């Protein structure tokens, strides 16, 4: 389960980065902002999983 969550976090981060870069390249500010938001969600999910790993030990 944790492996799936970590993969989901990484996927959100990569998808967000792609959206951000695409939005910046086309000058679309809303897409760029969506990308940053997805990256933040991925970062938060990753931090949560890392915290869970710390408390498992």
What do you see in this structure?
This protein is an all-alpha fold and 57 residues long. It has 2 helices and no strands. It has helices at residues 2-26, 29-56. Helix 1 packs antiparallel against helix 2. 12% of the residues are buried.
- What's the Cα radius of gyration? 13 Å
Low-confidence stretches at least 5 residues in length (pLDDT < 50)? none
Give helix and strand order, one letter per element, not per position: HH
Strand content: under 5%
- Report the span from N to C terminus: 17 Å
Give the helices and strands, then pairings:
Blueprint (H helix, E strand, L loop, with lengths): L1 H25 L2 H28 L1
Helix pairs in contact: 1-2
Name the features.
single chain; 57 residues; mainly alpha; 2 helices; 93% helix; elongated
A few lines on this structure:
This protein is mostly helical.
């Amino acid at each position: 389960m944790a492996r799936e969550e970590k993969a989901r976090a990484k996927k959100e981060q990569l998808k967000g980065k792609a959206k951000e870069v695409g939005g910046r390249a086309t000058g679309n500010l809303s897409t760029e902002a969506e990308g940053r938001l997805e990256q933040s969600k991925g970062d938060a999910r990753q931090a949560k999983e890392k915290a869970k790993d710390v408390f498992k030990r």
